[in-house]
Specification:
The complex is a heterodimer.
Chain A lengths: L1 H33 L17 H8 L9 H32 L5 H13 L6 H10 L6 H5 L6 H12 L3 H9 L4 H9 L4 H16 L3 H5 L9 H8 L7 H21 L1 H11 L2
Helix pairs in contact in A: 1-13, 2-13, 3-7, 3-10, 4-7, 7-10, 8-9, 10-14, 12-13
Chain B lengths: L5 H30 L16 H8 L1 H33 L5 H9 L6 H12 L4 H10 L9 H28 L4 H9 L4 H28 L4 H7 L10 H11 L3 H32 L4
The chains are: A mainly alpha, B mainly alpha.
């Protein structure tokens, strides 16, 4: 009995040690954003703290290269929410048809989705850029959002999940006179909260931390997303790592809070996706 | 039986189909066209140059480095991320309580941005950074981490493994928790060592989850961009150059859209064939051991 307890204690010690190691980069990030400027990137764990990096970030520093960080943050929010919303909406609609409706050409669309999903996407980069430029969406929010409006993975996950929902629910609703849209949004989606949470979190995270497309599709400073702004300031801010860390906290912490907020539903949803 | 509803089916899938035509079918056709031109992304003039772009690509040192490096990353990144995610899964599976707490904790790196990770790693590894300062003071040497080819490849691999370990760990954990306790108890009664139990029970029973994770990890190793772009710029001496870097640099820095499209086509074929072969090898490996 005592041996067992000791055994468990060792397991928790190992697990905690491993966890601290894995989240250490986040700890390093946050501590350095608050660290006294003489200690930034000098110690594994800084010991003197100041708010100077954040003041510098928001008010602009003596070097007068203040950048619209807050503006970039909102750009990121608009673009990520817009893209994620469209990815989920289009995904839900397509998945409903592919899982619950019978129609001519369904097999073709199913195969097309699979082909699209496994196709090496790197071919598409240059022509997509040209497309956006030619229709006047270059350097606009829509140019950032629309090319990222579909997630094949979301269609795939929703289709699998909807297939597992028994048709009897749909039959019953039909008898009550519900149409397909009502069935999807009033019956099926409310039954899919946990999978929706998982899909939302994955898609939002991916969009929020996107670099390549957000860098290509935009020219003016007012259109930069926070991730791209940090990326571009990497060199110029070389002498000011403190504000860089503060900006990185601004990028990283909201998404962690969002994730922790939904973590219970996320765990439920993962149970399904991992089956 | 469900009744046929042709109109509804097409109506519900129409947003996707529209997107698929505009952002998938048209770009594919377009990129084939571009690959045979010398277009520079800006001027309205261009010429057809036949297969010149492809010849230039195949003989280019930087394209060759991208080709080779993909397999370097595959060989280094995949084992690291497999070992790390399996460790995470086994450690969590061994806990009697608070499994959810630890799983969520290990998942957090997946939420990081490659740009921010690069900033942190750059800070820790710089000449005056904490790691080199420590090495100088205690062992009186230091390493130019990002200036040494093999170290740079290793560092990028570790960064990406760190990001994905918790996510893959979650998949493996779900596989592990599906293995019946009785099997382990029976093995213990038969006097099996831990090492034997691991190779004869855990790995075979976990094969489906391991397969999933392997396929995901291999996909990742063929699409590396952010960390390399931000941290090493493909260097030192092309050691960390990747297909994505090569396409991006040629198209948007050197403004050679035609040439870059040719590289993208080559990259797509190479990637597709490589992933297919590796996949078949893993399936063969599983079948030979009778794990499927």
């Amino acid at each position: 009995m005592v041996g067992n307890r000791k055994n468990y204690l060792i397991r928790y010690v190992i697990a905690t040690f491993l966890l601290l190691l894995m989240v250490y980069p986040f700890i390093y990030l946050v501590l350095n954003s608050f660290a006294d400027w003489s200690q930034i990137d000098k110690k594994f764990i800084p010991s003197d703290f100041t708010l100077r990096s954040y003041e510098w970030l928001f008010a602009g520093g003596e070097a007068e290269i203040a950048r619209p960080w807050i503006h970039a943050f909102f750009n990121s929010a608009i673009v990520s929410l817009g893209s994620t919303f469209l990815m989920m909406l289009i995904g839900v609609l397509a998945a409903f048809a592919l899982s619950k409706l019978n129609f001519k050409g369904k097999n073709f669309i199913n195969n097309f989705v699979m082909f699209h999903m496994f196709f090496p996407a790197l071919i598409l980069l240059i022509p997509t850029f040209l497309l956006i430029q030619n229709v006047g969406l270059y350097d606009t929010y829509l140019g950032l959002i629309i090319p990222k409006a579909v997630s094949l993975w979301a269609i795939f996950m929703y289709t699998n999940f909807f297939r597992a929902i028994p048709d009897t629910f749909i039959e019953a609703a039909k008898l009550d006179g519900a149409n397909n849209l009502q069935i999807l949004f009033k019956i099926i989606l409310p039954m899919s909260k946990s999978i929706t949470t998982v899909i939302f979190l994955f898609l939002f995270t991916e969009r929020w931390t996107e670099l390549l497309w957000d860098m290509i599709a935009v020219r003016s400073d007012e259109m930069l997303t926070l991730n791209v702004l940090i990326s571009q300031m990497f060199g110029p801010y070389g002498g000011y790592p403190g504000p860089m860390y503060a900006a990185s906290v601004l990028l990283t912490v909201p998404i962690i809070i969002l994730f922790l907020f939904f973590s219970k539903k996320f765990q439920e949803g993962m149970q399904f996706t991992l089956k | 039986m469900r009744k046929t509803s042709n109109g509804m089916g097409w109506l519900f899938t129409s947003p996707y189909i529209l997107f698929g035509i505009i952002f998938f079918v048209i770009p594919i056709v377009w990129s084939f066209f571009l690959a045979f031109t010398d277009w520079n992304l800006i001027s309205p003039e261009f010429n057809f140059v036949g297969i010149d772009n492809f010849i230039e690509a195949i003989t280019s040192q930087s394209v060759q480095s991208a080709f080779v490096n993909t397999y370097k990353f595959l060989i280094i990144y995949v084992p690291i991320v497999m070992a790390l995610s399996l460790t995470v899964a086994m450690v969590v599976n061994g806990l009697p309580k608070f499994k959810g707490f630890f799983l969520i904790g290990f998942f957090l790196p997946y939420l990081s941005s490659g740009v921010v990770t690069s900033l942190i790693v750059n800070g820790i590894l710089s000449y005056n950074g904490p790691l080199n300062t420590f090495l100088r003071e205690k062992l009186s040497f230091n390493i130019d981490w990002l200036g040494t080819p093999i170290a740079a490849v290793l560092i990028v691999s570790i960064m990406i493994a760190w990001k994905f370990a918790g996510y893959y760990g979650l998949i493996l954990f779900s596989g592990l928790s599906g293995i019946e306790k009785e099997i382990y108890e029976a093995a213990a009664i038969d006097g099996a060592s831990r090492w034997q139990t691991f190779w004869k029970i855990t790995i075979p029973m976990l094969y489906p989850a391991l397969y999933t994770v392997l396929i995901l990890a291999i996909g990742v190793s063929f699409g590396i961009f952010t960390e390399v772009y931000q941290l090493t710029g493909g260097g030192p001496d092309f050691a960390t150059n990747t297909w994505q870097m090569e396409i991006f640099t040629n198209a948007f820095t050197n403004l050679q859209a035609g040439y870059s499209s040719a590289i993208a086509l080559i990259a797509a074929v190479v990637t597709f064939v490589s992933i297919y072969i590796v996949r078949k090898l893993i399936e063969l490996w599983g079948r030979r051991n009778g794990w499927e």
